Records
---
Amino acid sequence: MTSTELERLTPAPPPGELVDSPRFQVSARTSLTNTQQRANLKHATTTIRNKRARVVGEVADWQALRTAGEQIKNRVGRHLDEYLLEFEKNFTEAGGIVHWARDAEEANRIVIDLVEQTGEKEVVKVKSMVTQEIDMNEALEAARIAAWETDLAELIVQLGHDRPSHIVVPALHRNRAEVREIFLREMGRYGTPPPDGLDDTPVNLAGAARRHLREKFLRAKTSTSGANFLVAETGSLVVVESEGNGRMCLTLPQTLISVVGIEKIVPTFQDLEVFLQLLPRSSTGERMNPYTSIWTGVSKDDGPQAVHVVLVDNGRTNVLSDPIGRAALRCIRCSACLNICPVYERVGGHAYGSVYSGPIGAILTPQLRGLASDVDRSLPFASSLCGACNEVCPVRIPITDLLVHMRHKVVEAKKSDPPHIPHTAEPQLMSIASWVMADGKHLAWAGKGTALVDLILGKGFKVKKFGPMPYPLSRWTDARDVPMMPEQSFRTWWKKNRGELA
Ligand code: SF4
């Protein structure tokens, strides 16, 4: 790879740039105006959602499987330290090398050092969420090492100088015509160009990607990956994927560096039986994954002869210390909650300002990153709390409970009043609401007060509901109608029909 190729690899800041993103409510408004993206999202999420429902309906003991997944992951949370050490021992005995990384900086430093030790200037890469979480590609580029994405959707995102918008299908926001245009414009700049006359049929687009990637697979001496699971009992890593690119990255190069979040542990090999049923059905609506690769250390003369795993914390032990919030660590990144979420379907992944988008992103990101930024404090509010995500989550994460829990934390953070958090009238309004709701007499007085407002504003002017109102009330009424009070309160009705209140 020439230095010019490397220069070009560094993407220009895309529209969905995650660093310094505006808070969710602002970026969601911008996303909503992108009608092409909305159409792409609706089509893609509806297709995956329906496929999932079909294959999940075939499994008689689906609910029992979900409970098993939940309980295995809960056990992992309770004994994480022991399982990690067991994994380290078994992986090391099998010839692999384990590295521990407290945070993103440490993880990237380890990966860069390992690649530099090989003398290589490029790596091929299996799709991995944790490497996006720690911005590994950017760190490698800064060290003048190119990281080539080999998953088709990740390739589209990388060539388009874009950011992933979905956990499993990162280019979900793009349609075929856009993909063709990206391939024609960018592919030749980084390697094998697309064939002449490329059209936008899926088979031809996939063929162009295959030709482009083959050259990189055959040339690369080093690869990086994540892992869906780490098996403590055997010291094995597991990657599930659909395209075979992962299998190429895990077997062809001489050195393999796997970067994995510490929560990916499962205790025993038999536990995979549960997750290898839950994951493909929940994620892509398939009965089983086309490719499941399991590797345990080094096999002489077969596959990579140097195998490293970098175990990354990066905020996970903080999440584990929260008895309610820790349920988010059960997540197996299937994306079923994204595909069913009415908010995600309309705004897409970039609006969340995080590599983890949708309902899981709204709870996991502020837990991992903390509540210091505007965008992270806004994420727990990126939901209508409809609860559809709770129903589909294969490990039964009570996502809406966690959203409310995180909202509470945001309110508490605001109360502590750091100067950079803007003041709003919300705490005062909530104090008034709390006073009203706390006592039946207060509620009765409030009922009389609202009846008076109703009489003056509603009946007097024959108004049925409040429409748009001046600022600051417009912040509520611009998007919602506020109905008028009913003819009479429940108390009045009771008094009239049943006599005095007890
Ligand atoms: S929270 Fe549940 S549904 Fe959402 S990605 Fe994680 S495992 Fe899948």
---
Amino acid sequence: MEEFKTWFSEWFNTHYYHILYKNRNQQEARDFIENLVAFLKIPKSKTLLDLACGKGRHSIFLNSLGYKVIGADLSKNSIEYANQFANKDLSFVVQDMREPFLFSVDAVFNMFTSFGYFDDDAEDIKVLQNIANSLPDDGIAVIDYMNVNKVIENLVSNEVVTRDELQFHIRRKVKQGFIIKEIDLTDQGEEYHFMERVKAINLEKFTKYCQQANLTIQHTFGNYQLDPFNLQTSDRLILILSK
Ligand SMILES: C[S@@+](CC[C@H](N)C(=O)[O-])C[C@H]1O[C@@H](n2cnc3c(N)ncnc32)[C@H](O)[C@@H]1O
């Protein structure tokens, strides 16, 4: 695929992204993975893909539980960082999730809203098709998305977040089906502007997407403790998919 700049290839590749989200820590990732693994009962002999793995917090923990894990992400900087944790059963690759995967796995994890970045619905569906193609007939996939209903209901339009002595000026809005976060900051006299633009995909739309990728939604959960999904109150929309 032609390399051109998009908000997601820029923003996620900066260290500012990691500073802003540093509170989303290792412990949260571990607790969620422990709950998922207990629910899914995936044998330790299996190979897992952490799709859009970032710096690998879920990959590293899954590997520590005994799984073979591949972490894949578009951000070269994040993969370079994650590579320091690589071992014979844990590898990291630069991969655009819209491009066919060059490996087969037993389960795919797509964590912490790492989906819905593309303008064209066909590209989101392509990602789901790539996931389906990488799985055996009894394979499963987990999509950990936001509950767009609750996010939109509770949208804070202006906020200043201070992390590591940096002030992130954040403006949020919903426009043409996307939840948009504009991020401005000044660092050492330089001004920076970044954006997050994530599609407001609700359960109904996910169901249609999945049908087009020959995936079936088997379970939905509403938070990292795997409580039932509730449209009004859940923070997350966590989907367990099968072929
Ligand atoms: C919200 S972050 C989550 C990272 C990681 N899953 C975590 O929980 O820490 C989203 C990730 O998606 C990656 N990403 C964005 N667009 C991508 C694409 N087209 N293909 C693969 N990864 C992509 C970003 O580089 C970023 O690491």
---
Amino acid sequence: MSDQVTDGWAASASAWIVEQGDDGDFGRRFVLDAPMRARVEGRGFRNALDVGCGEGRFCRIMQRAGIRTTGIDPTEALLARARELDPQGDYRLDRAETMEVDASHDLVVSYLSLIDMPDLAGAIAKMVAALRPGGTLLIANLTSFNTAGQPDGWTRDREGIPRFAIDHYMDERPIWVSWSGIRVQNWHRPLSTYMTLLLDQKLQLRLFVEPQPTAGDPDRIAHHRRVPFFHIMEWQKP
Ligand SMILES: C[S@@+](CC[C@H](N)C(=O)[O-])C[C@H]1O[C@@H](n2cnc3c(N)ncnc32)[C@H](O)[C@@H]1O
């Protein structure tokens, strides 16, 4: 199967593992980890399903918070790394859209993985089915304003000033993005597509934030603050 008809994750796995290192890349280490940890720690969650767990970093973080975790991901090489770093952990080869679930989880997490899922409606339905009544769905995602600027992202205007151009915002589409030896397919979808699918599941929105970098290289921070990057949403199943 060629890379063009897969999503690129198998071929990108080793570069991804290097990019994440021990502490995650810039966005995880300096932007998302702190608010994501704050949403899972000390809230009495007993078990969690991490959908699109990659090499398992957030499962390990949740375990340190006393939460029993199951990670699912369709990329074998990332799961192999997750098992290597956490031999006692529960990591399963699966896709969000087709995973077998029952309504037994206090917490379901998607940490920057909804953008990777071709069948978003199917994936969200399964994630909700995995939650017990009253359970929490915690999502970190790239904003739709950001994905609408991909793959070109930053370009220079006539004065040479970097600008981030958003275009074809309403058109859902796959986009191929490349950085640091990684080349994967993401999906751009308007924000309303995500919100409508989540609301259609009768979920209740409990949190919506756009976290900013809290540390790191000042140039990187300034760059990050110029455009919408990430949001975190927390939804509750009635
Ligand atoms: C950007 S990575 C995020 C990995 C991890 N959550 C983290 O934050 O480091 C996206 C992950 O989604 C996985 N993925 C791709 N398609 C998926 C699908 N249909 N269902 C579940 N996971 C998927 C990829 O294999 C990859 O590990």
---
Amino acid sequence: MGIFDMFTQEIAIDLGTANTLIIHNNKIVIDEPSIVAIDRLTGKAIAVGTQAKLMQGKTHENIKVVRPLKDGVIADFHASEHMIKEFIKQIPQIRGKFIQPTLRIVICIPSGITEVEKRAVRDSAQKVNAKEVILIYEPMAAAIGAGIDVESPEGNMIVDIGGGTTEIAVIALGGIVVDRSLKLAGDVFTNDISYFIRSNYNLDIGERTAERIKIEIGSALEELDFTLDDISVQGKDLLTGKPKEIMVSYKEIFKALDKSIMRIEDAVMETLSITPPELATDIYKTGIFLAGGGALLNGLADRIHRKTGLPVFVAEDPLRNCCSWDRHCS
Ligand SMILES: Nc1ncnc2c1ncn2[C@@H]1O[C@H](COP(=O)(O)OP(=O)(O)OP(=O)(O)O)[C@@H](O)[C@H]1O
Ligand SMILES: [Mg+2]
């Protein structure tokens, strides 16, 4: 180890639209929502991650709470830089060090990203003392994280449904053979639910409430083979302006989500149709791997199985299934 290497730390960042994960020495050291609260007067970050999420929808005029990523890419460069900086400061192995180490950062990006968007990710990473920045495509990261042997000559299909993008890819021999990147994922599901509740119940609900409904009783099927009880939802009555409570069932949420899920199904079918035949043969045996938080939606794996006729597997921990990919990109 050279003298300079002693001051270099390697970290991997999954800068997601919904959640940011930072991996150091093969361990997840940061797992926080991708949100930052910024003081409008000083321009400084006052909270990041979970703390900033608690402030969402409740701020006064001097504070703005920003989600710096939209559709899988950096939408607010300034806020994203603040957020990454604050997260890196919280890494136990870096926090409190007298000499701040330089960093070698591996960072994952959606497969449909443009050159300009790639530059924004690189620039953001460079601003936090990175001497080297390596980019890796998200579906590849998700496949490695799901335990797939990506180097093998066998084809595998991965569907990563995150917050901002759904990445569908067929991977073989360490590369992406065919892929589709849709700007439709968990955030759109959440919006679908808000819209449904507003138009059917005249009830205005916040983003956090809509996400809670999705997580608790979201469903990709009209008929699930297990029970999900109705839940109570509170919001503001659009007609009277008063707070109001309603009861909602999973069947209703299925209706709210159905169209968006159909678009994901179509994209999966389309990707299968452009997959070379030898790899299609492999996928017939290996099936489809679902990753990303969207994979947790009740009934989704079953629905994709019914549509494709293929075996569908859900990654062990879809929200954190990237913990091992940093080792594969050096
Ligand atoms: N149980 C659940 N059911 C349905 N959706 C869920 C569940 N748990 C989390 N989600 C959703 O998963 C999404 C976050 O997933 P993930 O962390 O994989 O996204 P991301 O990596 O931040 O986004 P992207 O990869 O698109 O940039 C959010 O939209 C969240 O609401
Ligand atoms: Mg992701």
